[in-house]
Amino acid sequence: MDAAFSAEQDEIRRTLRELVAKRCGPDDVKAAARTPAGHDSALWSALAGRLGLPGLALPEAYGGVGCTATELALGCEELGRALVPSPLLATAVLAAPLVLALGTGRQRAGILSRVADGGLTAALAVPGAGLATALALVGDNGGDWAGGGRAGGVQARPVDGAWRLYGQAERVLAGHSAKLLVVAAHTGGFARSRTLLFLVREGARGMVRTRQTALDETRALARVELRDTEAELLGPDDASRVPAALEDVGDVAAAVLAAEAVGAADRALERTLEHVRRREQFGRPIGSFQAVKHRLADVYVQVQAARSAAYYAAWAAGAAESGGAAAERSGGLALAQGLEALRAAASEAVQLHGGTGFTWEHDAHLYVKRAAGDDLLFGPVHRLRARAAERAGLFAAAATEADGALAAGEAR
């Protein structure tokens, strides 16, 4: 792994940081999150048209830039610093890669070019609250999270040569405004139980979308209800490819989310440092007190460790995408570390801003809500770590050691 960034990568970061600094202050973020779309449409047009951010990791053949997950993670780190509300995560990180991995040639050509230029936003709709499970971040995704042949979830059935969906999905990221939904649905009943992905277009008959109240208002969530809604199967009728595709997308998404959390944690720490340098007690800045220095030093170390983990996870995902040497999936572990760093930085921001920091309206609470909201949506952290340990075989090794010790004891 080459830890140095290229000139192109540095330019992506610099350009985004300048744009975000001009147009995404805390008041701008709050105002954008409270619009019907849940984001600033003008800013999204600038990110898409001027910078090509939605197509950053899409192939050039479909109008993308042809970069990897590393560049996408660096871009999201800059957006994370200001907690910018946008459909980027739902569209470019979750939905578009699934179309690229599973879609037919016609579907790719018709969808990805519109995603790349920002004209089409998309979202991944997963039944219940199973997004982290579907992406294999907290457990194996080969189970019945999409319905499993029982009532609940989203069910799909073929009718007169077309597919019909029935059911609902909760907490769909950017699902209320997305022009295209990628819906995970169960079909085949008990006899041929399988999970497939379907495309549902904006305005489809029988689809009702309702924006839900969310702890983190910068992450717009929706309930999607499907009542005999016509849908298009994504790719061929081959359920064997779906879990692996979702797992691949989940690893990249976790790396990107980890970088975004690092950006948010870094900015929360910067704001706290600015405050403790200005705020005085007993005739001196509170940042000069040893106890405050120690607390902020601990957060700094946590943020830098999380940054290293996020960069490595993004590099590993990018290397796998570009056909390089396969590396272990480390996105989930990096995400756990990033969320912990963000929670620590946000907590210290609230504490060290004193009485004003405890008011719910203070800007520090935007970072508290982002940490808690992402933990609920993509975690929790302890399950992300448990999944990483399971993949690394740590539990199996511990069980083997325990069995060996028991056998040795019985032999005595």
TrEMBL record:
<dbReference type="Pfam" id="PF02771">
    <property type="entry name" value="Acyl-CoA_dh_N"/>
</dbReference>
<dbReference type="InterPro" id="IPR009075">
    <property type="entry name" value="AcylCo_DH/oxidase_C"/>
</dbReference>
<dbReference type="InterPro" id="IPR013786">
    <property type="entry name" value="AcylCoA_DH/ox_N"/>
</dbReference>
<dbReference type="InterPro" id="IPR037069">
    <property type="entry name" value="AcylCoA_DH/ox_N_sf"/>
</dbReference>
<keyword id="KW-0560">Oxidoreductase</keyword>
<feature type="domain" description="Acyl-CoA dehydrogenase/oxidase C-terminal">
    <location>
        <begin position="255"/>
        <end position="391"/>
    </location>
</feature>
<dbReference type="Pfam" id="PF00441">
    <property type="entry name" value="Acyl-CoA_dh_1"/>
</dbReference>
<dbReference type="InterPro" id="IPR009100">
    <property type="entry name" value="AcylCoA_DH/oxidase_NM_dom_sf"/>
</dbReference>
<keyword id="KW-0274">FAD</keyword>
<feature type="domain" description="Acyl-CoA dehydrogenase/oxidase N-terminal">
    <location>
        <begin position="6"/>
        <end position="118"/>
    </location>
</feature>
<protein>
    <submittedName>
        <fullName>Acyl-CoA dehydrogenase</fullName>
    </submittedName>
</protein>
<comment type="similarity">
    <text>Belongs to the acyl-CoA dehydrogenase family.</text>
</comment>
<keyword id="KW-0285">Flavoprotein</keyword>
<dbReference type="InterPro" id="IPR036250">
    <property type="entry name" value="AcylCo_DH-like_C"/>
</dbReference>
<dbReference type="InterPro" id="IPR046373">
    <property type="entry name" value="Acyl-CoA_Oxase/DH_mid-dom_sf"/>
</dbReference>
